Amino acid sequence: MDHAAVFACSHRRGGNSDHAAELLAEGVRRAGGEAEVLHVRNFEVMHCLACGYCDAPERTGRERCVLGPTDQAWDLFAHCLSARTILFASPIYFYHLPSRFKAWIDRGQQFWRARLYSEPWIAGLPKRTAHAVLLAGQPSGEKLFDGPG
């Protein structure tokens, strides 16, 4: 296990998701790898505009999204593109993911489109693993994890 990017996705500092992210990073380090914890709340991520800009096959990389140069979503994506392992620790708020994390996920549409068009900058990346740890404060609820699933 080389380098792992651990994304702490809660808006709240010092909560269970931050603690889970630190435990994940510690596990990677104990296994002989390197881990970096990134708090999504510290990055400005604008919501997808559904403008269709990312649909054009001639656009690549950061230029694929019209919002790419205006916020820090790409700074987070860069870690996904370079890390061997990607780990997410996120709370569940009202049966779904926190808004900034969800906005960042939506902005990932550009990567799905790039893979669809077999763009070399994305298609040539090695396969990697990603895992999620979802934390809920509510002790029960038969559909508690259906929203982010």
Automatic annotation (TrEMBL):
Signal peptide: none annotated. Pfam families: FMN_red (PF03358). InterPro entries: Flavoprotein-like_sf, FMN_Rdtase-like_dom, ISF_SsuE-like. It comes from the Bacteria. The keyword Flavoprotein applies. This is Flavodoxin family protein. Gene3D superfamilies: 3.40.50.360. Residues 5-109 form the NADPH-dependent FMN reductase-like domain. The keyword Transport does not apply. Keywords: Flavoprotein, FMN.
